[in-house]
Design goal:
The protein has 14 helices and 10 strands. It is an alpha/beta fold and 335 residues long. It folds into 2 domains: 3-263, Aldolase class I (TIM Barrel), CATH 3.20.20.70; 272-319, Antifreeze-like/N-acetylneuraminic acid synthase C-terminal domain (Type Iii Antifreeze Protein Isoform Hplc 12, Alpha-Beta Complex), CATH 3.90.1210.
Length: 335
């Protein structure tokens, strides 16, 4: 059933204490997994790259700073990430992270020995990173924002080439890379499109500022719902505006749990509450008029009526043409 990933990302603003508080909030909300981003700033971006449009929009001050300068402020080093990994262990919530460079992938896979790796949308065409990850026997969650089907296929093929990662252990997250995402841009039908064309598990990385898309995705049978979380939407940083505060995260968990309850199982059988109603809703075979002993049962002297206390109406054929072994009154159950 659907699991929820609470994406901290860089919403800790470079603070270990904020990161731990976000872990606490995710745990208390009932989230399954809490996710971070692991990167070495100088390995991710060139020195003079300007901010992306959404980053400028969500960073009212210092719009002229470089992306390198910005991500360096919202950065936790490997030592801090290891502390968060251990803190998650203590809190009994799964730690997950996305590597944005080979050095970070090596840290997550060799140092922390993670069994699941999240590959972010921007790295779906990063051949050297994908090739490195392919050498490890891990489960993959792959976000697909900004990508086409052929790019997703190519990424999967690279990951499988190392002969360690099986297709059954890859989950593809449909994603729209804009913060926040407009509901009109969600295109949730891509979930079934990806499932049908790639024969993989699917999920949703949701950047809308509400829970509507997540609710619908649960009904579509996704493995994961990923949502960014924050302590406060008004905090400085590029992702806070498209993130859930704690009260909204709690609502999301409740909504997903309610959706899972409504969806039920992949079987079709009556529930306990239905069973007590069967005798009142289904019909028995009864005499439609008095029937004498030795008389042949037929459509002229039998009918079906509630309740189901005699032979069920489904046994109708078994009685047609047979002789009555006794007299039957009108409305008497045929047995």
């Amino acid at each position: 059933m659907t699991k929820i990933i609470a994406e901290v990302g860089i919403n800790h603003n470079g603070s270990l204490s904020i990161a731990k508080k976000l872990i606490d909030n995710a745990k208390s909300a009932g989230v399954d997994i809490v996710k971070f981003q692991t990167f070495v700033p100088e390995e991710v971006v060139i020195a003079n790259l300007k901010l992306a449009p959404y980053q400028k929009k969500n960073l009212p001050l210092n719009k002229q700073q470089s992306m390198l300068n910005m991500i360096s402020k919202y950065f936790l080093n490997f030592q801090d990430q290891k502390k968060l990994f251990n803190y998650c262990k203590k809190k009994k919530i799964q730690f997950l992270s996305s590597p944005f460079d080979k050095q970070s992938a090596e840290f997550l896979l060799k140092e922390l020995k993670l069994k699941v790796i999240k590959i972010p949308s921007g790295e779906i065409t990063n051949y050297p990173l994908l090739k490195y990850i392919s050498k490890f026997n891990v489960k993959i969650i792959l976000s697909t924002g900004m990508s086409r089907l052929d790019e997703i296929k190519n990424a999967i093929n690279i990951l499988k080439k190392g002969r360690k990662i099986k297709l059954k252990n890859i989950c593809i997250l449909h994603c729209h890379t804009d913060y926040p995402t407009k509901l009109s841009d969600c295109n949730l039908n891509s979930i079934n499109f990806i499932r049908r064309h790639l024969n993989v598990k699917v999920g949703l990385s949701d950047h809308t500022n509400c829970n509507n898309a997540a609710f619908l995705a649960v009904a579509m049978g996704v493995e994961y719902i990923e949502k960014h979380i924050t302590l406060n939407k008004n905090m400085k940083g590029p992702d806070h505006k498209a993130s859930l505060e704690t009260k909204d995260l709690i609502d999301l968990v409740r909504m997903v749990n309610k959706a899972k309850q409504i969806l039920g199982t992949f079987h079709k059988e009556p529930t306990k509450n239905e069973l007590k109603n069967i005798i009142f809703a289904r019909k028995s075979i009864v005499a439609s008029r008095p029937i004498k002993k030795g008389e042949m049962f037929s459509e002229e002297n039998m009918t079906t009526k509630r309740p189901l206390l005699g032979k069920p109406a489904s046994d109708w054929k078994e009685y047609i043409g047979k002789k009555a072994k006794k007299n039957f009154k009108n409305d008497e159950f045929i047995k």
